[in-house]
Design brief:
Layout: H1 41-53, H2 58-62, H3 64-72, E1 76-77, H4 83-87, H5 99-122, H6 133-158, H7 179-196, H8 210-223, H9 227-238, E2 266-270, H10 297-300, E3 312-313, H11 316-321, H12 333-338, E4 339-340, H13 344-347, E5 375-376, E6 394-398, H14 399-414, H15 419-431, H16 452-467, H17 473-480, H18 484-493, H19 512-516
Antiparallel strand pairs: 1-3, 2-6, 4-5
Helix pairs in contact: 1-5, 1-6, 5-6, 6-7, 7-8, 8-9, 9-14, 14-15, 14-16
């Protein structure tokens, strides 16, 4: 991995003069260095906040990761006018150094990880005085959680990236690690973090809690197919101490509104703000303390002719939502808040005329071909005109995901769905007024309630509808695995999978510049 620049790591200069008997060795008081920094709790906190600061970069949660994760998944698609950008969601990789598709994502995740490593390399220094030992432990636990978070998404994309656990230096040439090694490290970090994170936070909601750590750890254990371990985490969240903290929001749509953030369904949210109301692309928080603290998720997935329209929905997700009616014979309300499409007003007459960015569908004057497209409504706001930035928090871990994941984990452990697994699926369904699985008029095959494979296949549908466009689906698909049978099914609903090659496209290529500059780093298989 090439050298990534730390927020506060500069080399101090030492001047040597051959004609002198003594060397002049003076600390430059006009600039920061490791010799001057990492001396106090405030320094540690500044370093920790710099790790959080990496949420607000184009390669992390400002922009590009939404296009990549949602675009590669079978429910998303890109018709972006920037051809290379849309091809990176279609498993068509020609330039392994494409900045928007990979270099920014890879390098900025490693910048975050290196910042975390700097904090961890210094936080246990006995010379640093903290307000209390509890404060030190909490700050260390936060840092471990953040490092785990960034590695989780790196591994979702690249699989075989280097595992770096110490502050990087210019001469480092780390080798590839495999997913098993990386997941094991993430698990170790999160287990350690759980011990010292608080149960709740009354302020500073950006900082994780025990629930945040259990939620992320459950995701990692599931990807690692450590089903029993995942069940322990999910039990804590849903049936244990977490039960008094987390519950489903009565209104499903409140999970994606900027007016109902940090609600009781949320285990962790990336906090966004428009407090720095900046221009088009002022994202350089390496240099500018007043750079944006918001996200571009809305303009990134906005309808054609409105914003960038870099990623949108595949039509099948609408049809799957409409398969089954609610108890009062209406369409699934989640569809209304997930997608925007031509027939929407007819499908939801009770909601009147629907507009996005102050326009009806007809007012966009789309062609016949574009009238068949489906745009993403989830996380949109009522702002008009559409602005480059959005302050709607991204819900990284929410209870509905945990409940459906628990159902999946229990099915894996028991090799059949038990009453508890079915009950958690029913809880997700009845929240939006759908019938229980046993009473469904559409999913009538009794094997869904008794057979391991049939229940697992049905869970794929439930997760698709509940969690669409939340950067979850691609990771789900990787957990379930790819083979000829699953590829055939994906190709029926997403033509992009005609480009998918088994043994290759389960992950992205590593940036070629990283491979070229590091003799210990191998390109991902078959690239």
């Amino acid at each position: 991995m090439k050298k990534v620049f730390a927020i506060i790591a500069f080399f101090a200069a030492a001047l040597s003069f051959a004609s002198c008997e003594k060397q002049l060795d003076i600390q430059n008081e006009n600039g920061l260095s490791t010799g001057m920094f990492w001396k106090s709790q405030d320094d540690i906190n500044a370093g920790l906040n710099a790790v959080y600061g990496m949420f607000y970069r184009q390669g992390t949660w400002t922009r590009n990761i939404y296009t990549q994760l949602n675009g590669m998944a079978d429910d998303g698609v890109s018709y972006a006018g920037w051809t290379e950008l849309n091809e990176w969601t279609k498993f068509k990789y020609t330039n392994y150094n494409f900045a928007e598709g990979t270099v920014k994502i890879y390098s900025e995740h490693y910048t975050a990880i290196n910042r975390a490593n700097q904090v961890l390399d210094h936080i246990d220094d006995p010379a640093i005085k903290f307000d209390s030992e509890e404060t030190r432990k909490d700050m260390k636990a936060q840092t471990l959680w953040l490092r785990a978070f960034y590695y989780y998404y790196l591994t979702a994309l690249y699989d075989n990236e280097p595992l770096c656990l110490k502050t990087s230096s210019a001469g480092d040439q780390p080798k590839n690690s495999n997913p098993d090694e990386i997941f094991t490290q993430i698990e170790n970090d999160l287990v350690a973090a759980i011990a010292d994170l608080p149960l709740k936070r009354t302020s500073e909601r950006a900082r994780p809690t025990k629930g945040s750590a259990y939620g992320l750890l459950a995701k990692v254990y599931a990807q690692h197919h450590k089903w029993d371990k995942a069940a322990e985490c999910l039990e804590w969240i849903i049936e244990g101490e977490g039960k008094s903290i987390y519950s489903l929001e009565p209104k499903w749509q409140d999970n994606f509104s900027c007016k109902t953030e940090n609600n009781k369904e949320s285990l962790y949210e990336i906090q966004f703000s428009l407090c720095n109301y900046v221009g088009f692309d002022q994202t350089d928080n390496y240099l500018d303390a007043n750079a944006q603290l918001a996200t571009q998720i809305e303009v990134n997935q906005s309808p054609k002719n409105e914003g960038w329209n870099n990623v949108e929905a595949n039509r099948w997700i609408v049809e799957y939502f409409k398969r089954e009616k609610t108890l009062d014979q209406k369409n699934d309300p989640r569809l209304y808040y997930t997608c925007w499409y031509q027939e929407m007003d007819a499908d939801f007459p009770e909601n009147g005329i629907t507009k996005m960015y102050n326009k009806t569908w007809a007012e966009y004057q789309y062609s016949a071909a574009d009238n068949k497209r489906v745009f993403i409504k989830k996380y949109s706001t009522d702002v008009y005109p559409l602005y480059y930035w959005n302050d709607n928090n991204v819900r990284s871990i929410r209870l509905a995901d945990m409940m459906l994941r628990y159902a999946e984990v229990l099915n894996e452990i028991n090799k059949a769905p038990n009453a508890k697994a079915i009950g958690y699926v029913d809880a997700i369904r009845t929240r939006v007024n759908l019938p229980t699985l046993a009473n469904s008029d559409y999913y009538t095959d009794p094997k869904i309630l008794t057979d391991y494979k049939e229940f697992k296949e049905h869970l794929k549908i439930e997760r698709a509808l509940e969690l669409a466009f939340e950067c979850v689906r691609w990771i789900d698909q990787k957990r379930w695995g790819f083979d000829e049978e699953t590829l055939a099914a994906y190709r029926e609903v997403d033509v992009d999978y005609n480009n998918f090659i088994l043994g290759k496209h389960e992950c992205l290529p590593l940036p070629q510049v990283e491979v070229d500059n590091n003799p210990n780093l191998n390109q991902n298989p078959n690239y």
